[in-house]
Design goal:
mainly alpha
Amino acid sequence: MNTPPSPHHNVQKERRGLNRLIHAAGYSWAGLQAGWHEAAFRQEVLASIVMLPLSFWLGQSWVEVALLAGSVLLVMMVELLNTAIESVVDRVGPEWHDLSKRAKDMGSAAVLLAMLFCGGIWITAIWQFAHTH
């Protein structure tokens, strides 16, 4: 016996192959557009416009380029995840709650750690570059 789909049925789960990939890309694009409405994400994107090309000039091997560029992308990824956490918490309810604060604080801490990681990689690479040239 087949049960009818619920009104909250997720059609994306039934898609396969290229159709699923195309729709997933659309959802990802929508996520990037939503992220653009966040000031912190816009600042990170603008910084990446400078830092990503600079990573190819500054890096002395493919590993260094990957670390420099990857650390920049990591900051943006974590920022998007932090924004997603904040959105879900806000969706649950606007009232103050210990767990809501904890979730938002932990998301913020993740962004901070990603930025420290990125900054450490870039400072080390710049220091090494300055001392070898």
